[in-house]
Design a protein that fits this description.
Layout: H1 17-28, H2 32-38, H3 45-52, H4 61-71, H5 75-81, H6 88-94, H7 108-125
Helix pairs in contact: 1-7, 2-3
Length: 127
């Protein structure tokens, strides 16, 4: 999902919190409504859509926690991507990745490629 130039957030549009959340949701194979149900309606499908489209760039920590549980990903990583935690923490070796990746030292590009590939595989299973 390309975003317009000058988007508030990180330097690369595809590294924004919204794009990352969209990749995570795609990798899990869940619809917006299924995420809403999985969070016990703590995150509505409309709100999640706004997050994924970078209309909302700093959701509450409670929302990020609910999404981290559903996506089985690092709460700390989502907090960092939302700007609550300094990226200096990731430089100290605490860079968070999706829980399914046990490989050490993945780059952001490698993590994105793995999430994209996982989404592709899951979409093939659903056909």
């Amino acid at each position: 999902m390309p975003k317009p130039a000058g988007q508030i957030g990180s330097a690369a549009p595809d590294d924004s919190l919204g794009d990352h959340l969209a990749r995570l949701r795609s990798a899990t194979g869940l619809s917006l409504r299924e995420v809403e149900e999985a969070t016990k309606k703590e995150v509505s499908n409309a709100y999640l859509s706004q997050l994924e489209n970078n209309k909302i760039v700093k959701p509450s920590p409670n929302v990020l926690h609910a999404l981290s549980v559903v996506y089985a990903t690092s709460y700390e990583d989502l907090m960092r991507r939302a700007g609550y935690v300094s990226s200096d923490a990731s430089a100290s070796g605490h860079r968070a990745k999706a829980a399914t990746f046990a490989v050490e030292n993945l780059t952001t590009d490698e993590e994105k490629a793995l999430l994209d590939y996982l989404a592709f595989i899951r979409n093939q299973k659903n056909k």
